[in-house]
Specification:
alpha/beta, 5-stranded parallel beta sheet, 51% helix, 5 strands
Length: 191
């Protein structure tokens, strides 16, 4: 493939990704998504966990929630404290079967914390542990048939998770009317 053909293919793939995200957005139950906000506001502290690229998306969400002034921790980081009653574990797993996430959710429930999950299905061990599950009707990483997404593995779910959590943050920010200058004071300055 020549360089010129790369540019044509990249543009076509960017348009495919955007089209799939618009299609995904049309299938999301935003009434279900809106319940995320009261869970977050009522929690003492927030703990976020996901694996792989979903983990990167939730780390981005953790950063924005921290900018908002909430007490936020990413599970697995060395400075993350113990979770307890009154806390909220926000977990993402397309399949709802990722073992490390299930273990964390089980521990959270055992100590009295609530679990809120993002998944592609309500029929999973994670959904059964969660007080609430937000469904992103995307392909799971094991779905290689391209019937839901033409993208590789769980890409549609991972991208959708990032975009949806950004939309949730934007909603919280607008609702609380926190000036950008206040958020900026919490932005990392050791970069």
């Amino acid at each position: 493939m020549k360089e010129q053909n790369f540019s044509i293919a990249i543009k076509a793939n960017m348009e495919l990704i955007l089209k799939e995200q618009l299609s995904l957005s049309a299938k999301i139950d935003f009434t279900q998504v809106a319940t995320f906000i009261p869970y977050v506001y009522s929690a003492d502290r927030l703990f976020l966990i996901a694996a792989g690229r979903s983990g990167l998306a939730l780390k981005a969400a953790a950063m924005r929630l921290m900018h908002f002034g909430l007490k936020v921790f990413v599970v697995g980081e060395i400075t993350t404290p113990a979770i307890g009653a009154g806390d909220l574990l926000i977990a993402a797993s397309g399949s709802g079967t990722t073992s490390s996430i299930l273990t964390a959710a089980e521990k959270a429930v055992k100590v009295g914390a609530k679990v809120l999950s993002f998944s592609t299905t309500l029929d999973s061990p994670l959904a059964k542990l969660a007080a609430h599950t937000i469904i992103l009707p995307a392909a799971q990483k094991e779905d290689h048939g391209k019937s839901i997404s033409e993208q590789y593995a769980g890409s549609l779910f991972e991208q959708g998770l990032w975009l949806l959590t950004d939309a949730i943050f934007q909603t919280m920010w607008a609702e609380k009317e926190v000036p950008a200058a206040v958020l900026w004071k919490r932005h990392a300055n050791l970069e």
